[in-house]
Amino acid sequence: MTKSSISQTEDLRTLLEMLEQDIPAFLEPFASHETHGPSLKSLDSPYFGATSVAEGVGAAPKRRIIHTCEKIVAVLQGPTVKLTMDASGHLTSAVISIAVNLRLPHLISSDVDKPTMLDELVKATSASPDLLTRVLRYLTQRFIFEEPKPSCYVQNIMSKALAEPVTEAWTDLIATEYHRGSAALLDLLLDNKFDIPPESQPSALTKALGSEQSFYDYMRLENPDLGRKYALSMSAPSHGPHTLYPYAQLPAGSFVVDVGGGSGHITAPLARLYPKLKFVVQDSADTIVYGQSVYGSEGLPIDWQTVNFFKEQPVKSAKVYLLRHVLVDHPDRTSLQVLNCIANAMDEDSRLLIADAIVPDQYGEDSDSLLNVLDLHLLCMFNSKERSLGQWKELLESVEKDLEIVKVWRTDDSMGQEALMEIKLKG
């Protein structure tokens, strides 16, 4: 593992030179597509998150630009301000949860020529003007909403995202329940002598919730409203690496089983593309009912099954078993239970596809900041983790029927964050 050039310098002039190289490289794909680059103001920006015309060629420069800017901020802030800001991240969670619960993303105007006035928000929310002013001052300074004139507010692309149901649910979960879990993490580790529990329960989050159930069982048995919000937060259509597998080469009538497939939001687009295949979505009863209500009327070749994936897999010898973002929610011990059930159902022609992150071989400041955040979310919620390729291989080799990775599928320049591992029975 070699340290990046960014991590080897703190000279501001050198960092500036790096930006002068990487910014044109990042913008080049936009120019070739005759579209403008990223924008906070434009509500129809072609650039949003991980999906953009800049992916592939532009992804590596984008990461370097972000890393360089983070380095510049750290150098300029110094230890007192930097540590104060980092230790105060809980305030961002609190303010976002206030904004979401007051429905500010739905109340504030998108028209820069007709901004929403503070007194309009006071009337619509019944919140105090002092609170609204302070919440929006905090958010606008962090590029969520804009304040073109004092006490006048308009949407930008960040606040617009908060008005989208899936992003709203996901962000609110992080800012509320997941935040409570992070606050309980130290107590859990103190109770466990700073060792990570080998099972999903107790976790920091379930400790904070006062439940003796796993987080999934807590939602199912004790808090179905939270379960519905969680299901919504996970339901965004995805064009991730699971789409890279050559499903078109499978014989007509082949079974593709989406184990822990949620509402079918991953399987439904595949079923539209490959109608000659037979798809199966397996999950808990409530989730399956919800999925059928969303996709059942389309006439897609999908069989909906209520299945506990810790028990025997009912579909034998399927061509494909898909586990997308499932094992990441389970520590190794419980992940092995899932894998053993699938491996026992596989034959020599079956393939297991695991769609999850692969932690790249980077360390220190070169490690991926978003992946680090997601990894600690998993620690708080499930006592689980994001895994490196070596850790994935070690897990697969521990299955009762040995499994081996045939191929790792990645999108262009994905750097291991999202990947698809194609796996077969060994031997």
Automatic annotation (TrEMBL):
Keywords tagged on the record: Methyltransferase, S-adenosyl-L-methionine, Transferase
Single GO MF annotation: O-methyltransferase activity
Database matches in SUPFAM superfamilies: S-adenosyl-L-methionine-dependent methyltransferases (SSF53335), Winged helix' DNA-binding domain (SSF46785)
PROSITE patterns linked to this entry: SAM_OMT_II
GO terms for biological process, alphabetical: methylation
Domain O-methyltransferase dimerisation: 88-162
Domain O-methyltransferase C-terminal per the UniProt entry, residue ranges: 254-397
Protein name listed in UniProt: Uncharacterized protein
Taxonomic lineage from the root: Eukaryota, Fungi, Dikarya, Ascomycota, Pezizomycotina
